[in-house]
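Case study B.
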Amino acid sequence: MDNDVLRQAPLFSALDDEAATALRSSMSESRLRRGEVLFHEGDSGDKLYVVLDGKVKLGRTSGDGRENLLAILGPGQMFGELSLFDPGPRSATVTCVTDASFASLSHDDLLKWLEGRPMVSHGLLTQLASRLRKANDVVADLVFSDVPGRVAKALLDLADRFGRTADDGVHVHHDLTQEELAQLVGASRETVNKALADFASRGWLRLEPRSVVIMDIERLSRRAR
Amino acid sequence: MDNDVLRQAPLFSALDDEAATALRSSMSESRLRRGEVLFHEGDSGDKLYVVLDGKVKLGRTSGDGRENLLAILGPGQMFGELSLFDPGPRSATVTCVTDASFASLSHDDLLKWLEGRPMVSHGLLTQLASRLRKANDVVADLVFSDVPGRVAKALLDLADRFGRTADDGVHVHHDLTQEELAQLVGASRETVNKALADFASRGWLRLEPRSVVIMDIERLSRRAR
DNA sequence: TTGAAGATGTGAGAGGTGCCACGGTTAGGA
DNA sequence: TCCTAACCGTGGCACCTCTCACATCTTCAA
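Model:
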């Protein structure tokens, strides 16, 4: 069951079975529906979460109410780790994009585990480093690429993580509205819609509600660069 | 001497004197001039660096040769830590903005230190978490703020780290050309120049070569939001 | 001192993107 | 089943920002 998902999570990958089971037992589990919020930006809280099933979005809101998504996370990915090591309130709001379930661990319990278990520490460092590298890539994309390019890149990333290959193309059930997709790439819904319509008219993909079928990965990749 | 700078570095802050001195002895030192490059994006290498003196810029180059600066780092700040935990080539080019000196540590030596010294691990995690939070802030700024707003924010950040308060305002010797400042905020040199000229004409600051004097922090802060 | 290269100021034109407006479509609850 | 709210598709216009072009001003080495 969901122990398998946890074992795949980078945080746990270096643990042996016994240690993983023990750590698992000190984590509590929760379950939410699409649209429900796990915590808000600005909340206090120091729990670390791992997605067991479903998808969530990490978002922040600007002063005038506009929203920007930092990431879409799926099974095995963790979040909330910023508040663990960088003291302060939650830096993002986490909302379920689908029904979803989570395992969570408190700051204190995690710290206990870190002592004497350098491999867990190392796993966390690896995870943070990877997130930082990705964040830097996002910055570069915002500076260098236009909206269609960023949309193409986002679709390819989602395909990579959630896509299923079939004979008519790669089916990507991203579960995002175009509004959410727009917030993810930092653009307006209308502009993203036009980019998608353009890709579809070229035969690169087919649009379906909350999902796309990518028919020409090659050209889409070229457009992303 | 430069041991003081190292002791202030977050990486070392949790160590006692004895441990810090020992770690210091396993680090080697180097010195470069303005404009010289420490390593290039794409290079292999797994050394961690700490700036002892001077300033460096972390930059990446897009496919068509345009450049984008991720950060300006000064004394006590570290870089190169991504290649330590996220295997792969250097993700950015590091160039000296002023003459500068560094202490460096190899991957293997660092790993030895991490074993049995959870506080060092914790220091690294804190540092990475803080960097990640900043990267997310940069993303939000790119999405939500216009160029003048980003310029104002960059100036305030530089003032915070490198500024000296005098009776006629805060003197910020950032050592950056307007071209570099533009790359830092992800805009063209011309647009940044016009933003600066506008701020100056309003009496918020005074422009000097490779530095500014901020006379009205209050209004500049308001413009940054 | 004096060129030359680099850095800074400023204007004009073009293009991408955001915002507004509106109609059509889909989904989910009464 | 119907009805309402959310979501999707598309055109038009305004504005910000980029690019290009060029003049002026430093800096620094010969």
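Residues 177-179, 189-190, 193-194, 197, 207, 209-210 of chain B lie near DNA strand C (CB under 10 Å from a C1'). The remaining cases will be described in the next quarterly update.
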